[in-house]
Design brief:
Layout (H helix, E strand, L loop, with lengths): L4 E5 L10 H16 L6 E11 L2 E4 L15 H4 L9 H13 L4 E4 L6 H10 L7 E7 L4 H11 L1 H4 L2 E7 L19 H14 L3 H5 L1 H4 L3 H4 L8 H7 L5 E7 L2 E2 L3 E2 L2 E9 L2
Parallel strand pairs: 1-6, 2-5, 2-6, 3-4
Antiparallel strand pairs: 1-10, 7-10, 8-9
Helix pairs in contact: 5-11
């Protein structure tokens, strides 16, 4: 019946150490998938922490865990997520992209960045599910990423889960304990607007989020943490049911919304 597509907010790197409600929700959902025999054969992740001039596909057999951040507690740098890579899936990704007119290169040296390994360590903490990443092009638009998701949608029928990793809101200057105290009421207003349009599968409204979404500039001073949503959404059929896993807010300003679309659970 195929694998889900998902958008998962990964928040701050410290989310790896303090998963809270959001992390528990991810673990519970993945455990249910495992119990049903629906563990993916691999997970393809698009993270805002791998941006490139063109498309690149992770092709290493054993990617390293990259602590691509600084100034955090020492315990964070001791974490390791030794998931296997998926070179065969990388080959399939390359072929699918080429058949849809996308040029891409396979990168056999790229490690897992925290946008990939942090959510995966909450989903499958034993690191047994193979994982690979697809880069986010620096000039990517919502429409481009929707097309990319459509091109790679057949992977879901082959057992590969497509995961857009980012953040429903991502204004680090408003994180609790940083700088001046500001109202973060906009966090839920923006997230509610997005969720309403996702529930209606109103893709055209979502692609215009930079112009129409309330408080968009407070929620996303830069858009790279929101854009992976469109990669996941592009692979989703209009009749697929969306399951919201969590709507937690982390450190006052980071909406940790996570949702999955199940191909076998269609809307009435």
């Amino acid at each position: 019946m195929g694998q889900p597509a998902a958008f998962i907010s990964h928040g701050s790197p410290t989310y790896a150490l303090a998963p809270g409600e959001a992390g528990a929700a991810l673990r519970a959902w993945a455990a249910q998938q495992d119990a049903r025999g629906d563990t993916p054969s691999a997970v393809l992740v698009m993270s805002p922490h791998w941006q490139t001039q063109g498309l690149e596909i992770m092709g290493a057999a054993r990617p390293e865990t990259w602590h691509d951040f600084g100034g955090f507690p020492p315990a964070l740098y001791d974490l390791n997520y030794p998931a296997p890579g998926a070179p065969a899936v990388a080959h399939s990704v390359h072929e699918l992209l080429a058949s849809h007119g996308f040029q891409a290169e396979v990168n056999t040296h790229r490690p897992f960045d925290h946008g990939a390994w942090v959510p995966m360590m909450h989903l499958w903490p034993d690191a047994q599910v193979p994982m690979l990443q697809l880069s986010l092009p620096l000039d990517a638009t919502p429409s481009f990423l929707l097309d990319l998701g459509r091109a790679l949608a057949p992977l879901r029928a082959q057992g590969v889960m497509l995961l857009g990793s980012g953040s429903m809101t991502h204004n680090l200057s408003h994180v609790a304990g940083r700088g001046a105290v500001v109202s973060t009421a906009y966090v839920r207003v923006f997230a509610d607007w997005v969720l309403a349009r996702l529930s209606a599968h109103d893709v055209s409204a979502l692609t215009a989020f930079e112009f129409d979404a309330p408080h968009v500039h407070e929620a996303h001073p830069q858009t790279e943490h929101f854009l992976p949503l469109f990669f996941a959404l592009g692979s989703v059929a209009s009749d697929e049911a969306m399951q919201v896993l969590t709507r937690a807010v982390y450190l006052d300003a980071l909406a940790m919304d996570a949702m999955v679309w199940h191909p076998e659970e269609t809307s009435p």
